[in-house]
Every structure is written in structure tokens, then in C-alpha cells.
Amino acid sequence: MADELARRGHRLVAVRIVDHFSFDPTSWWYGKPGMRPEFTGWWDVFSVFWDPSRPAEVIPAAESAAVKAIARRHGGVADGPGGGLVSTVLDAFTRVGLVHELADDEVVRRLAALTEPAIPPRPGPRPAARLAYRANRDEHAEMAAIAERLTADEEPADGAVDDARDDAWDEEWADAGDLLGALFDGAMHQGTCYPHTASMVPTFVALATDERIGDRYHAWILMDLFMIATVGRRDLSALADTRHALGQPQEEAPEAVAARRAVADSLARLTARWDTESELGQFFLAALVAACPEAGAPLRPAIKRLRQANAGTARDVTVRLVEALADADPQLIEDVLRDISAWNADLVADHSPYATAEQRGLSVLEDLISQELHGI
After folding, report:
1. To 10 degrees, the CA torsion angle through 48, 81, 109, 69?
2. Are 366 and 287 in contact (CB under 8 A)?
3. Is the model's pTM score more than 0.70?
4. Among residues 65, 157, 265, 272, which is most buried (max CB within 10 A)?
5. 120 is a domain residue
6. Burial profile 50-73: b = 16 or more Cβ within 10 angstroms, e = fewer
7. 223 and 89, same structural domain?
8. Residue 128 domain-assigned?
9. Boundary-marking domain end, from 99, 114, 129
10. Domain span at residue 103?
């Protein structure tokens, strides 16, 4: 592994046993329990990669994918790149176990040897029109609706909800997005699923059907439900290499299964509103069907019409991925992911082959619909 990284032009490469400093009498960590007991007896390979032709803080997605592939081939796992100023990283790099150190000119020579002839980019599809949605008429009522939900689980005394409505205008909450962020953080702090996450799904569903919520933040709420419904499968995609290397089964955590089922059980209530949804709302409802295919089966004809309406645009591939996931068809998912790779390889470059098509497809779909949400 270390030799292959050096051949790829990694400037410094060191090899140390996992939790090396727990065995070093001069280290503060000496004698302390290891931080990664599951990797006891394994070896770490650390390296510094810097391509002088790119900004110092940029690690090409192709290089990250290549390192993961090398680790996978050797039965290991790569965590992915870090970052920092080149001078700082070079000075701070721990040289214990150093096995390769390349001079600047050698780095340039080896990187040049890896460079493949430039392939002319494929003409991309025409840009898609922004998804239409109705302007919110009452931002105060919108923020109050979310504030009520933030306090609902605390069984407030009389008047507390009114206070929450007033607090929604405090500087702590700049807008409804801040309030929704706090609510989502309570359900899935830092994107992690917890045993209580499933119990919060009804709160998000109630907000998704609350007429006080405008179309824009309604889409945010549907996105939150997508994240909750798919967190277990997306986590399996991200950790597929690690689980394979450690011989662990590819199984969703029980709390993630409960969260997914909670969303699926509520989906009929949400999809019943399809005909009154804006284009933006329909798009994110379609994504929810991709997350919960069995529960969303009645909406498949509407999703087909949505794809036909976006045919030939940059959004077409996203709706095709939604369709493939909704059909639970692994080969169709693979076909769409291959098409996505042709125009945006970075989205799929470092996905593990040990993850299922569904797991990888949902991870890519999260990126695609997030781009739509942040573009409005």
C-alpha cells in the first residue's frame, strides 16, 4: 500500500501499527486504551499528497477514489483525505515509520506519469428551469408553526406556545430555516440516527401538512424526511469498505430501520397532497417515494410524468434515478449512476463496490436533491 502511494506521487508515506502512540513510552497516549479497538493488530498508512498544479487545499476526487481502491485491494479501508496548508502539513507530519520521502521534482515526475490524455467533456443537457413554487404570504405564521413544534414535546404551560411564537422573531432565529435546522438537529444531530429519531417523524409530517408553511420550507421539511428515511442505507454506503474489511454484516441499525418505517407509514398522508403541491413540492415528494418505494407505489405514474416533463434537461437524470429507486431495480439504478458519472464523476467516484446499488443510489440522490434545494 505504502509503495503504491509513493508511486502515485505522495510526497511522504509512513507506516505505523494502529494506536502506535499507546505503545510509545515518550507519548502522552502511552498505556492508554486504543481509540480504534476494532482495528487492533492492523497497520496505518499515512501520506501527504500535493499536486503543485492545483490549489493546495484541493484533493482531486479521482485521487481520493484511487487511494480507496488501493486500500480495498489490500483488504483494508481508507478514511479519505484531510486538508490544510502544505507547509503546515509537511512540518506537522509525524515521521515515525517513514518509508518514502520524495523530492519536489520526483513528485512532479510521478504525477505527470499518471496523467491521462484529456477527454473532451461530453455536451451536457440543457439547464433545467427552476422548480416553481408559491411565495410565502405570512412569514410570521410560518415561523410560529415551527416554533410550536419545537416546544410541543416539552408539554409547555399555558402561554408558552405564545411565547414561542414571539421567540421566533428573536435574533437567535433569523428565519424559518434556522428554526427547521434546530428541529432537524434535535431529530438527527450531525446527521446521526438515534433511538428517538423515529418518534419525531410525526412532527415533521405535521409540519409538512401545515398550511402555514410556505412552499420553500415545505420542501426543506420533505428533504428532512428523506434524510431520516435513508440515513441507515446511506450510512451503509459510506461504511461499506470498513464493514467488509472487518467482516461485519451490511445491516441497517435498528434505529434507522424504525426511522425509515416511520416515514413510510406516513407517506400516504403526504402523497395524497400531490395534486395541490407546487412543482418544488412534487419533486421532493418524488424523492420520498424513492426512499420508501413500497409505500409510494401509487405515485409511480405521476413520477413518470415528472420525468417526461424534465426530459433532456439537467434534472432528467435525477428523476430517472428517482424512478429506478422507486422501482427497486438494481440494474436500472446502476445504469443511471453510470450516466451520472459521465458528466459528474465526482458524485460517484469513491463509492464502494461493496455497497448495494440502492445504497449508492440514495447517497447520490441526496447530493442531487440538495443541489436543487440550495438553488432555490
Report:
1. 120
2. no
3. yes
4. 65
5. no
6. bbeeeeeeebebebbbbbbbbbbe
7. no
8. no
9. 114
10. 2-114
In tens digits, the chain (376 residues) has pLDDT values of 999 999 999 999 999 999 999 999 999 999 999 999 999 999 999 999 988 877 766 678 888 899 999 999 999 999 877 777 888 989 999 999 999 999 999 999 999 998 777 666 666 778 898 999 998 888 889 999 999 988 775 443 334 334 444 444 444 677 888 999 999 999 999 999 999 999 999 999 999 999 999 999 999 999 999 999 999 999 999 999 999 999 999 999 999 999 999 999 999 999 999 999 999 999 999 999 999 999 888 999 999 999 999 999 999 999 999 999 999 999 999 999 999 988 888 888 889 999 999 999 999 999 999 999 988 8
Please check whether residues 39 and 151 belong to one and the same domain. Answer: no
Torsions phi, psi of 363, nearest 5?
-65, -45
| Residue where the block lists cell 486504543 | 34
CB atoms within 10 A of CB 133: 18
* CA separation for the pair 83, 89 (Å, rounded): 8
- Count how many domains the chain has: 2
> How far apart are the C-alpha atoms of 177 and 180, rounded to whole Å?
5
Closest CA relative to residue 67, chosen from 103, 107, 21, 13: 13
pLDDT, residue 152, reads 72
Closest among 153, 233, 228, 225 to 193, alpha carbons compared = 228
> Please, what's the b/e burial string for 341-366 (b: 16 or more CB within 10 A of its CB; e: otherwise)?
eeebeebbbbbbebbbbbbbbbbbbb
Helix or strand holding residue 208 (H, E) = helix 201-208
Check whether residue 145 and residue 99 sit in a common domain: no
Task: Output the CA torsion sign for 150, 156, 160, 162.
Answer: positive
Q: How far apart are CA 358 and CA 325, in angstroms?
A: 7
Is residue 337 a contact partner of residue 361, using CB atoms and an 8 Å limit? yes
Q: Distance between CA atoms of 317 and 336, rounded to whole angstroms?
A: 7
**Domain co-membership, 232 together with 286:** yes
Considering the domain architecture, whether residues 239 and 356 belong to the same structural domain is answered as yes
Is residue 38 domain-shared with residue 153, that is, in the same domain? Answer: no
Give pLDDT, residue 156.
Answer: 38
**250 located within any domain:** yes
